[in-house]
Amino acid sequence: MDSTQEAGEGVLAGRVVLITGANGGLGEAAARACAAAGATVVLVGRRVPKLNKLYDALASIGPEPAAYPLDLEGAGPEDYETMAEALRSQLGRLDGILHAAVDFKGLTPLANTAPLDFARALHVNLTAPCLLTQACLPLLKQAPDAAVVFVLDELERIGKAYWGGYGVSKHGLLGLMRILHDETRDGPVRVSALEPGPMRTGLRAKAFMNEALNGAPGPGAYAAACVHLLSPAGAAQRGTVHVVREGASPGQALS
């Protein structure tokens, strides 16, 4: 069951939250839930028409959002610094980042993986979140309570054959989360990760083409968990991987 309506009305009121991959399944669901929870949502994605459509939808359910078209594949440090400065000058603050953007072309043996495909997966899934967070850290540190949330996958499952650059990058993302948490543990910026359960998305369809996806929930089932981690209540998961399965309450981590 989609649970965007259960994300906690008002728990993000007054906060500015940036969501990458807002064009995608989880990113869009999380954006809608964050807006309903009172946040000013900054939509980051590469498909401008979809961003504009989502912008209009969010404006009708919460504070006026902001759209920032950006292709993470081609973006570099200067682009993220420009974005951070735009956030500072136009919105005056940043209270959270949800890294929901993802690159996955399908299951392929490493021996057959095109070098550019491998490099793209590492860049979009690992390097880009690192550089974007780095550029935004000074602004995040100005908030009394700020959250950086990385979206993982089930590492035991994707650490096996054919997951290629996607599997490698998600393992690296866990390392990034742990290191950044250790470096920020005494400050206002708290870092955590979300590991959602199976959901009906284009990514999962690429990995499990023969799987009947009708039984899997939509990405909205995990939107409340995104809001939870970005809200003050998410401090309880600081430095941890928040494993959520369908049916769990927003603050309940399952192993």
UniProtKB/TrEMBL annotation:
Coiled coil: none annotated. It holds the Pfam family adh_short. Transmembrane segments: none annotated. Keywords: Oxidoreductase. SUPFAM superfamilies: NAD(P)-binding Rossmann-fold domains (SSF51735). Belongs to the short-chain dehydrogenases/reductases (SDR) family. This is SDR family NAD(P)-dependent oxidoreductase. The lineage of its organism: Bacteria, Pseudomonadati, Pseudomonadota, Gammaproteobacteria, Lysobacterales.
